[in-house]
Every structure is written in C-alpha cells, then in structure tokens.
Amino acid sequence: MSDELDELRQAPSDLAVWEAFVTSKTAEERCRTWLALVCGRVLGAEAAAVLIENPSNHTYVPMAVWPKAGPELGRLGAVVEAALRERRGMVKPAPTPSNAMHIAYPLMVEERIAGVVALEAKCPENEVGTVLREIHWGSAWLANLLAGRELSEALRARERAGSVLEAMAVTLRSGKLQLALFEVANTLRQHFGCARVAIGLVRQATVKLAALSEAATFEKHTSLVKAYEQAMEEVYDEHRPVLAPVPEGGADIRAPKHEDLRAISGGGAALSYPLTMGARCIGVVTLERERTPFCEDDLVWLEAFSALAAPIVEQRRAAERGALHRLGEDIRGVLERIFGPRHLTWKVATAAVLMLTVSLVLVPIEYRVSAKTVIEGEVQRVVAAPFEGFIGAAYVRAGDTVKATQPLAQLDDRELRIEEARWSSERDQYESRLREAMANRDLTAMQVIGAQLRQASAQLALVSERIARARLIAPFDGIVVSGDLSQQIGAPVEVGKKLFEIAPLQSYRIILQVDEREIRHVQMGQRGRLVMTGIAGEPMDFKVAKVTPVATAQEGKNFFQIEAVLAQASPRLRPGMEGIGKIEVGSRSLWWVLTHSFSEWLILAVWVWIP
Fold first, then answer.
1. Average pLDDT, stretch 270-278?
2. Contact 370, 581 (CB under 8 A)
C-alpha cells in the first residue's frame, strides 16, 4: 500500500488518491490516503504524520506517515508538544540550516484532543495560513474517523462489560464454590467457543485443577489433568498470560508446558490467564480451541474478568475453609511475613518480641516480697493506776519524750494524807500506852498494846506507800506511746487501769504483715529495706528475726506477722509509724515475677471448678 501511495504522490492528478480514499476499508488506510491528499495540496511538503491518542497510557502514537517513516519525523516533536499544550494550531521554524516550517494542528473530538496532524513544509511564511486552512477543512474527515473509532471502541467495551458481568452473575449465583467454578467454566466455554475450559486454584504455591467444563467430576491423576496443572503452574511462575502457539508479531516466548498440553488434548490453541488479586495470583483459567487462535480482544476480556472474579473466588474460598485450615493459613501467612522477603516491619517486630521474651525468661532479677509495716518499741511498759482514786494532775501526754523517774501524772492523795495522819496519831497513842504498861509491868497489857502498835505502824506504812505511788513516774527514758489525762482531771480511775504506755526511743522492732500467698518465700535471716510514710527519704535496712506461724485476718485477707530488727534506726523514727517493707527472697526470672500471681490464681480457680 505504501508503494501505491508513493506512485500516487508522483501522479499528475490526485484522482487516484481520491479513489483510494473513498474505497479504503480500514481506518489506517483512510488516514494514510487522507494525509497523502493533504500533502499533495500543500506546496513544499516534506514530511507529515497523523498522531492519535493511545487510551491505555494517554500518549500519542503515529497512525499514518507521509511519504514514509524517517528520522525527519522526530524533528516535529517540539511543535506537536506545543500544539497539545496550547490546544490550538502551532507553527514553528525548523532548526537551521533548514528553512522549512513545522506545523501542528490538533484534532478535537468533543472538546478533547483525539489526535494531531504534524507537517514539515518548505513554504514562505505568508503561505502558512493556507496550509492551516487546508488541514482545518480536511480535518473533519479525521475527526469523524476518530469519533467513529471511539464509538466502536465504546460499543465493544459495553458489550465486553455486559458479558463479563453475566459471567460474574454466574459466579455469585451458586452456593458452593466448586459448583460456581464449574458453571463459570461452562459459561467461558460458550462465550469463547472453546473445546474445553479449566480453572485451577493456587494452594500452597501449587496450582490444583478445581473445575473442568462439561465435566462435573474428573479423575485427578490422569495425564490430561496433570498437563493442565503443569500448564497453569507455568502461568503462575511467569505471572502473566500465556498463548500457545505464539501469535505472529508477538514476543517469542516459549511455553513448553502449554505445548505439552496441546499435544495431549489435541487442541489447536491454548490461552491461560492468571486470576490475580493485587500482586498475588489466586488461580489460573486455561482455554482451548480446536482451530481458531486467540486474539487481543480475548485477552482484554479476560483481563476484565480476572479483575472482578479473583476477589469473589478468594472470598468464597475463604468462607468455606474450616477452622483448622483457616488457622493454618493465618499461621503460614505470618511465617511468610517473618521469614520471607519484604515485610521489614514484621521482622523488626518479631526480633523485638523474641528479645523481650528471652529477657523475660532468662534474665534473673532480685525478687522482693512487699508487706505493710508497723514500727513498735522493742519493750513497751504500761503505767497503770495503783489503786482506786481520782486524777489529780497530768504532766505528759502521748508523743512526749520522757526521762527515767520523770513524773507522768499525779493521783489525788488528800484522803490518803488524812488517813496517814490518823494512823500516825494512833501509832503515837499506842506507843504512849505501851510505855505506861511497861512502867506498870503489866505483861498482858504490854502484849495487847504492842500488837495494836504494830497494826497501826503497818497501816501507816501502807498509807505512806500508797501516797508515794500516787505519783506516777516514767520507768525509763522513752516516748509516751499512748495516754492523755489532761482532759480527765478529777475523773475516777480503777485499780489496774492503763493510763500511759511508754516505749524506748532507740530500741524498735518491725512488724511486717506478709500475705499468705508470699509467706512461703520468707525465711529467718533474710534482709530487706523499709520506707516509712513520714520519712520516705530515709530508707532503712532490716533483717528478719522471727516468722510467726499464725495467720490473722484483715480486710478479707490472711496475713502472717513477721518480726524484723533494724540495722540502724533513723533518729526521726517513732513507734506507731507505718510504711512498706520489701524482703529480698532471692533471684527469680522476670517472667515469673510478672506472672506468678496470675498463674497461681488461675491454678486455684481451675482447681475449684474441677469436679
């Protein structure tokens, strides 16, 4: 055809070109003859091309060139880009030393640039308008041609979309995936006019045949089934469609497994297309025809079918998995992310978790048992009422520091002093009477009066002792732990009533209340550290002195009292202060320290519920 156009260009009349234009049957032929007509009417035309838009990547490719393709067409790129950018006809002078003009004119279809006519001509500048006019009036043919091509493409796309949706409806209509795949295979066989259609699904990086058209069941170990699976695995490995035989003009890519399939099945042509979801292939569709080879339209249809069918098939297959199979798939997916390529985040997170686990299990730390702690004096002396009486005076109260023999309080001794005076008077009388009896040598009177004298002396000594004991004094240096009589002056007291409690200042004992769940870890001689509430900035070391084997209940829990002694007491420490003590019981793993409370509770709970 190009040779004919060369002859037409050199003919004295363009009637032959018009005849070729009118009788052209394809868009490419009509475009070439139209370009020859235009260039024949342009004075000094050297080269020309018609560029049309490629919808797949929105680039402009040559549809026709005149007189033939050559390097001079590359010089028209600048003026074509300017015309596309400005959306109007553009004229630029050719680079020196050429004196030609570069002309580009956009072809508009519904406010969209569908193509560009580019022309190089050696003509004066005043002739450029004539050239643009020729292209403008003649571009209607090309605009109609491109609009017709777009309409045809749109009709084919609509028809293709309708047939793809019908196949999707078949996929969604059946309840079970196996039945759906069988019906889809039959639908594809009828749509493409195939002898057989096979659908395989990917399981653990291998493709297994799942459905075969016109065969509700098939033997999995036959040579035909194995040939299908091997051909599908060839597509799965290549991750692209495979045609056998390779069409003319296509890339020479060998597909030995598909050739083996054709040899076994006797088919004339085979086409396998992967069902991909993202970057993952979930299945393969293989079509076989006896004679007619597959074309580009078949590949476009299968591309649309794959994009819609792959998510549906994967979702249906996931819904029909058993719980164990689903768990295995999830575990396999996690292992692939951890040990496979890419997924750096998963690998870093796994390494961090592994290091943390090793640290929790293998790294030992010092485990300490915490317990509520109370400070008590090592010796506590009670000052009680020596006899019944009334409070006469109070000199100290709880919290005061006292010295040995320091007065604490005074009981009212007025009645005692009256009684002391009475007994003193009686004693004097008995002494006088005893002297008279001795002067009279009255032995009987001497014995009687002597007994009365001794009785009066004893009563006087008793009253004097009670008067002395009415003054309550501190038995040693210490602090008054309890007792405040300042508001009870004149109040009666009974014999033995506790009035004060005194503890020494520098001699303390520690009482730790250890929970019954932790008592098994505590032994005599263990050391620890104590922090008191009032003096939290001064931790003190202690040593366990005694483990009491009797539990006491407090706030719904059982506690064992542990006695400990301080290594060195703080000067600000006082009896009755509370705090928290921690007993060092030995090294344990960090995991055990964090989880032993829960694990012990769980064991006990399970034991309660076990019949």
1. 88
2. yes
> Can you name the residues that pair with 370 across neighbouring β-strands?
582
- Given a contact cutoff of 8 angstroms between Cβ atoms, the answer to whether 244 and 258 are in contact is yes
pLDDT for the residue numbered 589: 85
The C-alpha atoms of residue 537 and residue 2 are separated, in whole angstroms, by 102
Instruction: Return d(Cα 594, Cα 581) in angstroms, integer.
Output: 19
* Amino acid identity for residue 199 in this structure: I
User: If you search the block for the tokens 């999707």, which residue do you land on?
Assistant: 168
Digit-coded pLDDT (tens) for 528-574: 999 888 788 888 888 888 888 778 887 778 888 888 888 887 777 77
Task: Report how far residue 510's alpha carbon sits from residue 529's, in angstroms, rounded to the nearest whole number.
Answer: 11
Asked if residue 403 lies in contact with residue 474, where contact means CB atoms within 8 angstroms, the answer is yes
Give the separation between CA 368 and CA 584, rounded to whole angstroms: 4
Distance between CA atoms of 172 and 185, rounded to whole angstroms?
A: 14
Asked whether the beta carbons of 285 and 197 are under 8 A apart, the reply is yes
Q: Is the bond preceding residue 539 a cis peptide, omega within 30 degrees? A: no
> By percentage, how much of the chain surpasses pLDDT 90?
2
- Give the position of tokens 């085979």: 270
DSSP assignment, residue 493? Answer: E
Q: In what order do the strands lie in the sheet with 407-411?
A: 471-473, 407-411, 389-394, 492-493
Q: Which of 219, 228, 580 is nearest to 375 (CA)?
A: 580
For 347, counting Cβ atoms within 10 Å of its Cβ (0-12 exposed, 13-18 middle, 19+ buried), the class is: middle
Q: What does the alpha-carbon distance between residue 179 and residue 410 come to, in Å, rounded to a whole number?
A: 107
